[in-house]
Amino acid sequence: GFNCGIVGLPNVGKSTLFNAVTRTANAQAANYPFCTIEPNVGRVAVPDERMEKINAIIKAKKIVPTFMEFVDIAGLVKGASRGEGLGNQFLGHIKQVDAIVHVVRCFEDSNITHVDGNTDPARDVDTINTELIYCDFETVTKSVDKMSRLLKNNDKKILISHECGLRLKDHLEQLKPARTFSVKNEDEEDYLKSLHLITKKQVLYAANVNENELADNGENSKHVKVLREIAHKEGAQVVVVSARLEEELGQLEPEDAQVYMDDLNIKESGLDRLIKAGYSILGLMTYFTAGVQEIRAWTIPKECKAPQAAGVIHSDFEKGFICAEVYAYDDLMRLGSEAKVKEAGLYRKEGRDYLCKDGDIMNFLFNV
Ligand code: GDP
């Protein structure tokens, strides 16, 4: 599955948020019990209003969402890249994830110790990002050293990688993330990919605020403002959440939770927003299968051809792929029924080169 790693300094609310995301998200998607793969890995249903809307037309026996995973990566502290605390082990975990949710403390609370004394998002973001860049620097240094030993073989790929690695080292040394490094050609791109650098992964910032700062999406919090400016420069998103509120909501009956949310003037669950944003930075999209048995959402990468999409359901669908019958969610909504979509000539047969679109409703024909 695709996953987002939750990182941040100690005591910023990572575990609280992780627990809330994994429990609540699944309690809401009834029938899909919270699933802990490992103590720090949780599988969550991706909220998607379109499934209910398809169901209003097709009326299936059940609705099955698609899932993603969150990984709680604790223990990142200043000096982690130099092996402080359990640093290196945790950095190893971050290397495995597909994208990063960086939780930043934007709440003030004198009862909750801050490792550096006070709430200061700019300093905190910098501390974490510096550690991640150091870690990548190590990775690239090791790779460049290996390449230098192989230079004598006069292999073109090695020469390109070596040269690219040296530039990359220089870039990281200036405390810039790998995300902003420009490659010169496809070979360099391949090399960069092969390194699995942490600061190359997409990141989104979760601004953890107190309950009372949530109503205007954090507009009144000076800390959220600072974080937004940082994120804006990096082209990253900010999701404003209150981990503690979400934890509290998760312990209430749904009706009571709604009353509480109305009191605080909150429209959408912060967790839904966080999961959706996480799904989107992973570069994923969703297609549906829709029949009377079930309406189901499936996850595919943004660039995905029809056979590959079929393979997400079952590898046999991909192997024996003949064609896909496809229509668009938007057309179904606009026209009101599958029959009308067919009448309008919008129910198409597509072949192996078809590039899927988000919201496609698909049925695959295949040889067994
Ligand atoms: P982690 O070390 O980043 O995983 O942090 P935790 O999730 O364990 O939270 C540390 C402490 O901060 C706990 O006592 C939480 O209850 C508290 N906390 C988390 N989120 C908030 C919040 O939004 N506001 C306040 N005041 N406290 C919070």
TrEMBL record:
<dbReference type="InterPro" id="IPR004095">
    <property type="entry name" value="TGS"/>
</dbReference>
<keyword id="KW-0067">ATP-binding</keyword>
<dbReference type="Pfam" id="PF06071">
    <property type="entry name" value="YchF-GTPase_C"/>
</dbReference>
<dbReference type="InterPro" id="IPR013029">
    <property type="entry name" value="YchF_C"/>
</dbReference>
<dbReference type="GO" id="GO:0043023">
    <property type="term" value="F:ribosomal large subunit binding"/>
</dbReference>
<dbReference type="InterPro" id="IPR023192">
    <property type="entry name" value="TGS-like_dom_sf"/>
</dbReference>
<comment type="similarity">
    <text>Belongs to the TRAFAC class OBG-HflX-like GTPase superfamily. OBG GTPase family. YchF/OLA1 subfamily.</text>
</comment>
<dbReference type="InterPro" id="IPR041706">
    <property type="entry name" value="YchF_N"/>
</dbReference>
<dbReference type="GO" id="GO:0016887">
    <property type="term" value="F:ATP hydrolysis activity"/>
</dbReference>
<dbReference type="InterPro" id="IPR027417">
    <property type="entry name" value="P-loop_NTPase"/>
</dbReference>
<dbReference type="InterPro" id="IPR012676">
    <property type="entry name" value="TGS-like"/>
</dbReference>
<dbReference type="GO" id="GO:0005524">
    <property type="term" value="F:ATP binding"/>
</dbReference>
<dbReference type="InterPro" id="IPR006073">
    <property type="entry name" value="GTP-bd"/>
</dbReference>
<dbReference type="Pfam" id="PF01926">
    <property type="entry name" value="MMR_HSR1"/>
</dbReference>
<dbReference type="InterPro" id="IPR031167">
    <property type="entry name" value="G_OBG"/>
</dbReference>
<dbReference type="GO" id="GO:0005737">
    <property type="term" value="C:cytoplasm"/>
</dbReference>
<comment type="function">
    <text>ATPase that binds to both the 70S ribosome and the 50S ribosomal subunit in a nucleotide-independent manner.</text>
</comment>
<feature type="domain" description="OBG-type G">
    <location>
        <begin position="2"/>
        <end position="261"/>
    </location>
</feature>
<dbReference type="InterPro" id="IPR012675">
    <property type="entry name" value="Beta-grasp_dom_sf"/>
</dbReference>
<dbReference type="GO" id="GO:0005525">
    <property type="term" value="F:GTP binding"/>
</dbReference>
<keyword id="KW-0460">Magnesium</keyword>
<dbReference type="GO" id="GO:0046872">
    <property type="term" value="F:metal ion binding"/>
</dbReference>
<dbReference type="InterPro" id="IPR004396">
    <property type="entry name" value="ATPase_YchF/OLA1"/>
</dbReference>
<feature type="binding site">
    <location>
        <begin position="11"/>
        <end position="16"/>
    </location>
    <ligand>
        <name>ATP</name>
    </ligand>
</feature>
<keyword id="KW-0547">Nucleotide-binding</keyword>
<protein>
    <recommendedName>
        <fullName>Ribosome-binding ATPase YchF</fullName>
    </recommendedName>
</protein>
<feature type="domain" description="TGS">
    <location>
        <begin position="283"/>
        <end position="366"/>
    </location>
</feature>
<keyword id="KW-0479">Metal-binding</keyword>
